[in-house]
Specification:
Length: about 280
């Protein structure tokens, strides 16, 4: 179908006959996301708010289908790369975001940390150096004013604003730490995502939401006791990337529900269902 025919098809989006409108939308959607640039151009050239709104809705449907496919591909991939998973989630709000953009930003953070890093020091001191770079020099920190804002779960906005929720700050911290070859991993605590430094010789914990505070297993014991929960291995041991992505999606569901945006929370639930397994601990924030 050439541009002239496509324009004629898009013009039918002004039709008030719901059956005709449904067929037109279905036909446009059948072309897939390759038609999005054309639709964006038609939106810019249109002075009809009804047509513009329907074009926006079609673009969103196409972008959401692309997102679902990306998430399924990520879920089925052997490596389940964490940064790629974070990128897929961020494209829900920022469909033009590229994975390369995120890689470049994280590479710069790694470089800043590498300049001050000392490989032959005690793990505590290595973590303190990383804390100094991330929370001192680069000014990353907790977004306590807008804790439940959806932007806190979008890695690109956290990289830009330097403010985020526990899990996004932990992801950035972990990606940089692992690039420095440190054995730092995520841990699924109830109501608080944290990190653990775990090697054959030593294990301790890091709270990226509190400027990289270092603490011990006993502190987790006390935390769990305060919540009146039974101790479980998932509260102490590293979790995999799949669990991190699932928890991030759960955070987004909570964020959109608190805003009253139930259409978006329902869409995130669809995404979560694509990567759901019986072992999901169901934790958020």
């Amino acid at each position: 179908m050439d541009d002239k025919e496509l324009k004629a098809l898009v013009s039918l989006l002004d039709d008030e006959d719901q059956e005709v409108l449904g067929h037109v939308e279905e036909k446009i959607i059948s072309f897939g996301d390759a038609i999005i640039p054309f639709l964006e151009e038609e939106w810019e050239n249109s002075f009809n708010p009804n047509v513009q709104k329907r074009i926006e809705d079609i673009i969103h449907v196409l972008q959401f289908e692309t997102l679902k496919k990306r998430l399924q591909d990520w879920f089925e991939s052997k490596e389940q790369d964490l940064l790629k998973g974070m990128w897929v989630i961020a494209t829900y709000q920022y469909p033009d975001l590229t994975l390369e953009d995120l890689k470049k930003q994280l590479e710069q953070i790694y470089y800043e940390a590498w300049l001050e890093f000392k490989i032959d020091t005690h793990p505590f001191d290595q973590i303190k150096i990383l804390n100094s770079v991330l929370f001192g020099k680069l000014k990353f920190g907790a977004n306590t004013k807008n804790f439940h804002a959806p932007a806190n779960s979008m890695i690109n906005t956290v990289l830009e604003s330097k403010k985020g929720n526990p899990i996004t700050l932990c992801v950035i911290y972990m990606l940089v730490a692992q690039r420095l070859k440190l054995p730092v991993y995520g841990v699924n605590l109830p109501s608080l995502f944290i990190l653990t430094y775990k090697s054959k010789e030593i294990q301790f914990y890091i709270n990226a939401f509190n400027r990289g505070l270092i603490f011990s297993k006993n502190d987790i014991d006390n935390y769990i006791a305060q919540l009146k929960l039974q101790p479980s291995d998932i509260f102490y041991q590293p979790c995999d990337n799949l669990n991190i992505v699932r928890r991030m999606l759960r955070n987004l569901i909570v964020s959109f529900e608190k805003l009253g945006d139930y259409d978006k929370s329902d869409e995130i639930k669809v995404l979560l269902s694509l990567i759901f397994t019986d072992t999901d601990p169901g934790l958020s924030i």
